[in-house]
Amino acid sequence: MAQFIQLVEQRTQCIDDELVAGLTATQATTSPKYLYDALGSKLFEAICELPEYYPTRTEAKIFGKHAQEMAQAIGLGTTLIDLGAGNCAKAANLFPCLQPAQYVPIDISVEFLRDSVNKLQQQFPDIDMVGVGMDFSVDLRLPKNVRSEKRLFFYPGSSIGNFMPDDALVFLRQIKSACMQGDVADGGLLIGVDLVKENSILDAAYDDVLGVTASFNLNLLLHLNRLLDADFDLREWRHRGFFNDKLSRIEMHLEALSDQTVRWPNGVRRFERGERIHTENSYKYTRQSFISLLTEAGFENVTTWTDPQQWFMVCHARAA
Ligand code: AVJ
After folding, report:
1. Helix (H, G, I), strand (E, B) or coil at 122
2. Measured in angstroms, how far is the CA atom of residue 206 from the centroid of ligand 1?
3. Could you tell which of 43, 83, 137, 159 is best to mutate to test the pocket of ligand 1, judged by most ligand atoms within 8 Å of the CB?
4. Closest ligand 1 atom, CA of 44?
């Protein structure tokens, strides 16, 4: 069995307070992390199979085609730290080329990660593995048995897009700090980033014809009903997903189809017909805007790989 360290506590009260504050704000908002309960995670996997949802497939092709060059840029024997590892499959695909000295998958979904890392340890008995259950978006301080040499932070899937650009900068700076050994930089970042492209392609990727993304978004209300003991009626809501040019981001919202009141044990919220709950942002970068962000965060020596249509990009950058 692989080592496993659990740093998440189930701080239920904090979760409720944060949720209620978002729901009762003038512009109702929820954090995208609430999209990922057990069913939400399965619906996201289904999204990745959709013809319209190009990111997963395009990124996989880039890794498939350029893994050898990536290994050359990165070097062998790294401490491979997988942020949001889930089933650990994306990182495991890189093991043969990268030959990491230690593999450290991190995820907030603790039980799922525990199973994944144990299975993977059986497949790769020679790689030292330390699973860590924690919310790395809150605090990136790692347990002591995570090696400090040659850290490679792996953040695929364009999840960086969920951060507002200012928060993305803060987060990237934390990664860069975690690559420091005292005053000496010793590490880097391998990250997947979705690129700006024609609106119609972006719109379709987040509002697919089968309605899987709509189900994924609406399922958030089922999750809220369970977390808060609330009474959202899913038939009274619809999905909206579209590219906002000005802010260079996909926005997902849930829109009320009627005037209604939603109740939970210690609160209520009235929604008017047409009013929306903002459930997710997914920022899209240009190659240059993302390289600037990396540089500002304290990285250098950026190498990028992209697909022929330049829809998605994988970057390696060294801590400076
Ligand atoms: C997991 C955040 C990368 O933004 O594309 C997919 C989530 N939301 N369809 C993305 C998502 C709607 C996804 N990320």
Report:
1. helix
2. 8
3. 159
4. 6
**Mean pLDDT along residues 158-166:** 97
Q: What is the mean pLDDT of the segment spanning 273-298?
A: 98
Residue 106 three-state SS: strand
Which pLDDT tens digit goes with each residue over 234-258?
Answer: 999 999 999 999 999 999 999 999 9
What residues contact residue 11 under an 8 Å CB cut-off, 6+ apart? none
Distance CA 229, CA 25 (A): 19
Instruction: Give me ligand 1 centre to Cα 198, in Å.
Output: 18
Contact 155, 191 (CB under 8 A): yes
- Reading the block at residue 221, the tokens are 């209300």
Residue whose CA is at the smallest distance from ligand 1 atom 13: 159
* Average pLDDT of the residues in 1-8: 89
Is CATH 3.40.50.150 correct for 54-197+284-319? yes
DSSP label of 234: G
Single out the residue of 268, 100, 110 nearest to residue 190, CA to CA. 100
Q: Determine the pLDDT at residue 36.
A: 87
CA of 72 to the centre of ligand 1 (A): 30
Confidence of residue 147 (pLDDT cuts 50, 70, 90): very high
pTM, whole model, 2 decimals? 0.95
* Residue 170 neighbours by CB distance under 10 Å: 11
Share of the chain above pLDDT 90, in %: 90
Atom of ligand 1 nearest to the CA of 282: 4
Residue nearest to atom 14 of ligand 1 (CA): 159
